[in-house]
Amino acid sequence: MATSRRAEFVTPLAAELASDLLSRFLRYARIDTQSEAGVDTSPSTEKQLDLARLLRDELEEIGLDDVKLDEFGYVYGSLPGSASAPPVGLIAHVDTSPDVTGTGVDPIVHEGYDGGRIELPKEGVFLDPEELPLLQKKIGHDIVTTDGSTLLGADDKAGVAEIMAAVAYLKEHPELEHAPIRVCFTVDEEVAGGADHLDLEAFGARYAYTLDGAEIGEIEAETFNATKVLVAIRGRSTHPGTAKGQLVNAVKLAADFVAALPRDALSPETTEEREGFVHPHKIIGGAEETCVEFIVRDHDAAKLEEHLGLIRTLAGEIGEREPRAAVQITEEEQYRNMGEVIDKHPEVIEAAEEAVRRIGVEPVHTIIRGGTDGARLSHRGLPTPNLFTGGSEYHSRREWASVQDMAAAAAMLVELAQVWAERSK
User: Fold this and answer.
1) For residue 38, how many other CB atoms are within 10 A of its CB?
2) Phi, psi (degrees; rounded to nearest 5) at 356
3) Which CATH number applies to 12-222+337-423?
């Protein structure tokens, strides 16, 4: 299929930002920054600091104030602005998902996407527009993928690059009146630790935005409520040759427990939109003790409690069937629906809507079937909705991003900084 005519950028500003934006994104994407679950240190992996140090140095080169890399791996910087405007935070995370390897990322730019299947060089991976409806909308766009052997890391290095390109542009154009900007790049967002050590007082923002979304124009102001549940089932082990009447097999008890969950509902593979789920995503152990780990999600806090109640009930039934077994349940709140906070601050959404419209795009309000740093930050007192970045198929070898849409996000940030200055007069 012949190469199609390249798509236009949404505004001249986006076109102007595209080269710097793409250069930064490709540079950042090549750095392995995968985080690791279950690690108590921050960052959870030392390699996240490779990108953090680079960002610190680049912010200093741009000329931002108060640039620092703190002991937890967070990078901060400030860009002064209109004294009458509230300081506005821009946040993205440097880590990539542990789900797919991020070692040896080799980004490929497919210029002027022709609408056909994109064959990647390795692993027999391809992007088929018949399977990826969003890709069908990007004919003519410059599409960035990997070679098929790794994830791309657009989640969230697209957001990182967009923030960097936007603040560099604002610094280079002092004639533009804009709000004071506070930049923060976090670590460990993919393992639910991204907001743990963000110093809100030092950050100094009154409102903030995470750049961690997907399709152009999206503004997300609502996340799941999320709880992690660990159910530990202790049986009684003995030699299988003499086990009659003695063995209490924790593996079989765990299997029955999981099998008792609904099959046609309450699971990620059977739910969408506002429907929550009870997701057993890990089983570890043996006959003596087996642990089942769940992630439990719902946008409605009351429904989340119902889902937790289901786990408690099914776990209780284990003891009823086998009194010799012991069951322990541990629940850990991970984040709450940020909509509870953002609903009280409509101005933070209104400013984002205006910025999106200024790049010629109609805002699209969507909900997140997951969480962002903004969920926890909002409940810590910093209203933080999530904005689009132009990436898609996150956490997979098929991850891709549109250069035109990433440039649109960077342009939107430049407009957003000006919107806040105008509204403060």
Assistant:
1) 7
2) -65, -45
3) 3.40.630.10
